[in-house]
Amino acid sequence: MKKSNIIWTKTLFLTLTILIISACSRNPITGKKEAFVMSESREQALGDQSDPSIVASFGLYPDQTLQEFIESKGQQMARISHRNHLKYEFKILDSPVVNAFALPGGYVYFTRGIMAHFNNEAEFAGVLGHEIGHISGRHSAKQQRNSILTQVGLIAGVILSKEFANYAESAGQSMQLLMLKNGRDHETQSDQMGVEYSTKIGYDATYMAGFFKTLNRLSGGDEGQRIPTFMSTHPDPLNRYAKVGQWAKEEQKSYPNKTFKENRNQYLRMLEGLIYGEDPRQGYQEGNTFYHPELKFQFPVPTNWQLANSPQQVQMAPKDGKAMMIFTLAPEKTLNEAATNFVTQNKLQKKEDANLTINGFPAKAIVSEQVDEQGAVTLKIVTYFIQDGSTIYLFHGMAEPANFLIYKNLFRNTMEGFARLTDRAKINVQPDRIHIESINSPTTLSAAFRNAGIKSDRFDEMAIVNGMQLSDQLKRGQLIKVLKK
User: Fold this and answer.
1) How far apart (Å, rounded) are the C-alpha atoms in residues 431 and 429?
2) Residues 21 and 68 in one domain
3) pTM across the whole model
4) I want to staple 209 with a disulfide (CB 3.0 to 4.6 A). Which of 45, 245, 322, 453 is the partner?
């Protein structure tokens, strides 16, 4: 959770509630007439409206070198695409999830997670072309008619009621990078565009094919559990590996005597210092406690509850989804103002109101209810407002009336456990970062990891990150990725 982000922003899902406009026009790639479900202006508006929510939910990764790289290559490729009249934007999201996706209107996103797994510019360019291909083919527009954009829920696998969703807002966004799911034909067409576009700007698209092997390796074991999104929306990596490799060779025949780039070393050097995996500086769970090193607070997490941390908020829920808690920031400057605005803006009925002190922090606790048009209570909420200087933190604990009493004390135990973080070991925790090392003498990848001090239980993971096998032979001067704090 980042201090600069405030809850109660307009949710992405509201912006994705669009008016379907039927139109018939030519497919920019095939030239054939097809029925589209929205106009291009509406498509652009959808991207414009959705982009702020995506950025707010995940944050941008603060690396100027990588951002300039993706912007430069993205604009170069956009100029030779089938819809080069659009205003394209390319961004790197601060997420460990391995993913790249595009929104209608020219918005293309890569996560730092996928940037960490590329091993040369050619792999990146192929995926970049694939995502621009979705925009060129207007795949989001054509899929809108049959797609269902739903909130994933507080935590993957937890289904929440409609009432919960009103308060969770962007909770689901923190668990999954949301996009219109493309059909198999669209994925195939985008793979072809990835080959065509990356080849046109001078890259060897056979490396795009090779990246599908990395994706296939990522689909298994614990690593696969960490990066479900790209795999679920871009299926069958090994089948695509063979097809893309063949398309790349055929495309290159159109450019006789041309040398195509890989740019391995140039790309790897840009990754120096890239955060790998979760960033504990933005908050992390250890045991039954959530710690935030930068904001210096901690609070207990209920046993066996799942937790999702995003730049906007922390969400917690039991696996059955019968309750949930949200921890975030309030935009107001006083406890009374924050409490009043919460009740009035959400049209709640306040039932309890108390001023108290929590571990030295001034606080206010209220219990409120959401009532439907028939006067029936649909949701009960306990909210704690906790003031730390000019910052006001909020805890919301919610359950349907039948379950509220079961969870009320558990809500309060978590909220009243909010305290100042003073443990220097917890405060000084650092994320893993990718560092680029040059091999001094011929050796194997596993031996190089051992010499670099990487723990053996991470050898397989780091072999995937390097796009290699542990038994691969390395040459003197060859660059590899290793992890260090």
Assistant:
1) 7
2) yes
3) 0.80
4) 245
Q: Does residue 159 sit within a domain?
A: no
Could you tell me if 396 and 383 are in contact, meaning their C-beta atoms sit under 8 angstroms apart? yes
Among 394, 278, 265, smallest CA distance to 5 is for 394
Q: What is the pLDDT of residues 311-337, one digit of tens each?
A: 888 999 998 889 999 999 999 999 999
Does 39 share its domain with 125?
yes
Q: How many C-beta atoms surround the C-beta of residue 41 within 10 A?
A: 10
So what's the pLDDT on residue 336?
Answer: 96
Which residues 6+ apart lie within 8 Å of 189 measured at CB?
Answer: 29, 133, 137, 139
Cβ pair 442, 474 in contact under 8 A: yes
Segment (H or E) for 326: strand 323-330
Name the residue among 240, 28, 251, 280 with its Cα closest to residue 132.
28
Predicted pLDDT at 156: 26
Residue 262 shares a structural domain with residue 373: no
Whether residues 190 and 48 share a domain: the answer is yes
Give the residue numbers spanning the domain of 479.
432-484
pLDDT, one tens digit per residue, over 210-265 is: 898 898 888 763 333 333 334 444 445 667 788 888 999 999 999 998 999 999 99
> How many domains is the chain partitioned into structurally?
3
